[in-house]
Amino acid sequence: MSESELIKKAQSGDKKSLAELVKKYENTVYNFAFKICRDPEKAENTMQETFLSMVKSLKQFDGKSKLSTWLYRIVMNHCLMELRKKKYKFVSLDDDENENTAETVIPDWSSLPSDIVENIELRKILDKAISKLTPDYRAVFILRDVNGLSTEETGKITGLSVPAVKSRLHRARSFLRNELSRTLEK
Amino acid sequence: MKIEKINCNDVMDHICESLGEELDSQRCVEIKKHLNDCPNCQKYFTSVEKTIEFYKKYNIKMTEECHKRLMKKLGLED
Ligand SMILES: [Zn+2]
């Protein structure tokens, strides 16, 4: 059954189709929520809230955008709300000049093994670095670079224009790269 | 038209943008040319790619319990 057929059936109250839709997207939603909030418990909570919203407002879903885009946006809004409550102090990159100053000699990263991701220490470093980014920078980096969405779709989900997505992506990448280089090149 | 010479700083500024983006503008052609002959910029490029790769490979697995709690919350248990 195609996705739009599933959605139509779910909209008319078919629980089996609704469960199918949830199963199809639960992993995507869970991982995106985790990548934004960097906490498994909060990710689960966000995922539950996201699907509760989906169930509640599925009737209003008009199919003009992709269901995944719609879900990403709910996750995004929920995480933003949570992060605002915390009044966490983020690094502002909006008018940054300092991040792109070229270092004189750049160490070689090509020998760093990729399976280093299984390494708990590295995971901590990755969490710490990305947690310094404001949620909009974080979301742009994750949607565009990590999940491979288009610039346009990333803009739709975050409510940013295409040029704003591009400049945030650029700054987020070099910020993260520089944060990691401080730790990994030691 | 004068073609500016590209230096490492320009490359640092634009390398990120060009990752996964179109590389056919005059400026990007110059950057590519520079990148071919500049080990320092190549290393920077690799490090940005590696950064992205690390985050790409960092996924968490949803447990069966987590799935069950979700379905229960939604009233969709089998
Ligand atoms: Zn160079």
CATH architecture of chain A: Orthogonal Bundle
Task: Kindly identify the CATH topology of chain A.
Answer: Rna Polymerase Sigma Factor, Chain: A
Q: How much helix, percentage-wise, in residues of chain B?
A: 55-70%
Count up the helices of chain A.
8
**Oligomeric state:** heterodimer
Number of strands of chain A: 0
- Summarize the main sheet of chain A: none
Overall number of domains of chain A: 1
Label the structural class of chain A. mainly alpha
Mean pLDDT of chain A: 88
User: What are the bound molecules?
Assistant: zinc ion
Class derived from helix and strand content of chain B: mainly alpha
User: Which range does the strand content of chain A fall in?
Assistant: under 5%
Task: Summarize this structure as a short list of keywords or feature phrases.
heterodimer; A: 186 residues; mainly alpha; Rna Polymerase Sigma Factor, Chain: A; 8 helices; 67% helix; 0% strand; B: 78 residues; 4 helices; elongated; binds zinc ion
Give a brief rundown of this model.
Chain A has 186 residues and is mainly α.
Polypeptide structure, described:
With 186 residues, chain A is mainly alpha-helical. Chain A has a single domain, classed as RNA polymerase sigma factor, region 2, helix turn helix motif (Rna Polymerase Sigma Factor, Chain: A). Chain A has helices at 3-11, 15-37, 40-57, 67-86, 120-131, 135-146, 151-158, 162-184. The mean pLDDT of chain A is 88. By secondary structure, chain B is mainly α. Chain B has one domain (8-73). Chain B is 67% helix and 0% strand. Chain B is built from four helices and no strands. In chain B, α1 runs parallel beside α3 (39-57). In chain B, 18% of the residues are buried. The A-B interface holds A 15, 18-19, 22, 26-27, 30-31, 34-35, 40, 43-44, 47-48, 51-52, 55, 100, 102, 105-110, 112, 114, 116-117, 122-123, 126, 130, 141-142, 145-146, 166, 169-170, 173-174, 176-177, 180-181 and B 8-9, 12-13, 16-17, 19-21, 40, 43-44, 46-48, 50-60, 62, 66-67, 69-71, 73-74, 76, 78. Residues 8, 11, 34, 38, 40-41 of chain B line the site of zinc ion.
